[in-house]
Write a structure and sequence with these properties.
By secondary structure, this protein is of the alpha+beta class. 34% of the residues lie in helices and 25% in strands. It is built from four helices and five strands; from the N terminus they run βααβββαβα. The protein has a five-stranded mixed beta sheet with strand order 1-2-3-4-5, sandwiched between helices. Helix 1 crosses helix 2. It is globular. The N and C termini lie far apart (46 Å).
Length: 157
């Protein structure tokens, strides 16, 4: 199976939207419910993100089928309170690989390609958020060279 990783196009947005919404419907916990207007909200968000010049969008495909995608951005990070000098970082907001294409290295290829694009745009670091309870996800991010820095903790009430 030949997988190609390429920049996203406007024509990819509907497939990305559909895959992402299906994913969220399957992983939502009791404290997270998909909004009734999730379809239109996702469509608007993707269209806006696609137009932003600092966006990074990648699609992995085989035989014109979207096997996975990555959405990120490159931005100047400023601390709160503003005591640390701003720095240019890459942020990976989402990586998704369709169930039938998992464990083929597609996620790694998407992440590696995004890191190279961010490096070329003079980012000095890349950050992401992943589900610490998902062993496959945590392993993939660690394998890509990511390590916890600041822990984002969560407590249900």
């Amino acid at each position: 199976m030949e997988i190609t990783v390429r920049e996203w196009g406007r024509y990819d947005l509907s497939q990305i939207q559909q895959a992402w919404l299906q994913h969220f419907q399957g992983v939502a916990r009791s404290d997270m419910q998909v909004r009734p207007d999730a379809d239109s909200a996702m469509k608007q968000w993707l269209a806006a993100r696609f137009r932003q010049p600092n966006s990074v969008g990648l699609v992995a495909e085989t035989n014109r089928i979207v096997a996975g995608f990555l959405i990120g951005r490159i931005d100047d990070w400023e601390s709160i309170p503003p005591v640390i000098k701003p720095r240019r970082i890459g942020i990976i907001d989402a990586v998704y690989v369709s169930e039938q294409f998992r464990r083929e290295g597609i996620g790694s290829r998407l992440i590696d390609t995004a890191i190279e694009k961010m490096r070329a745009a003079n980012a000095i670091a890349v950050e992401t958020i992943y589900d610490a309870w998902n062993d496959a996800s945590a392993h993939a991010w660690h394998r890509a060279g990511f390590a916890p820095w600041m822990v984002h903790a969560y407590r249900m009430l």
